[in-house]
Specification:
There is one protein chain. The protein is 45% helix and 30% strand. It is of the alpha+beta class. The protein has a four-stranded antiparallel sheet with strand order 1-2-4-3.
Length: 147
């Protein structure tokens, strides 16, 4: 009976040594993990949006970049929408223009690349009856703003 108790005690002692080794290994991992510099959080999307007061700059840039790309703007409507507690603000640009397909594509590409919060809501291209190489372009752009 004593030998059975001794075997049981030896087995428990062995398990205890294994648990102590595991604890030491885990404590080492925790120390290593806590010494790592935390990854900075990215700002919320709404915090990166521009202010509504930059609308005039965007309108000027729409006109300037259109002219550089060979796009003739025939009408431009602007509709600001203020931010609410549940929605971010937006400025809607309704643009009517004439241009070749390539010029239209280049112009929109430049605008979308320049303003990360600008999006195309609708786009319509139709060949002009008098000049099939030119298109009637109707585009609704949405520029998201924080206020």
């Amino acid at each position: 009976m004593a030998s059975l108790a001794w075997l049981l005690l030896a087995h428990v002692a062995s398990d205890l040594r294994d648990l102590k080794l595991q604890r030491t290994a885990l404590e080492t991992k925790i120390k290593a993990a806590s010494s790592v510099t935390p990854i900075p959080l990215k700002p919320a999307f709404a915090d990166t949006l521009p202010s509504l007061n930059r609308t005039d700059d965007v309108v000027r840039d729409i006109g300037r970049s259109a002219q550089e790309a060979g796009v003739q703007i025939t009408a431009l409507g602007i509709e600001p929408r203020a931010a609410t507690p549940t929605q971010i603000g937006a400025v809607i640009f309704n643009v009517a223009a004439t241009a070749s397909y390539k010029a239209s594509k280049d112009w929109l590409s430049q605008l979308l690349g320049r303003y990360h919060s600008l999006a195309v809501n609708t786009l319509s291209l139709q060949a002009m009856p008098t000049d099939p190489s030119r298109q009637d372009v109707h585009v609704t752009l949405v520029w998201y703003v924080k206020d």
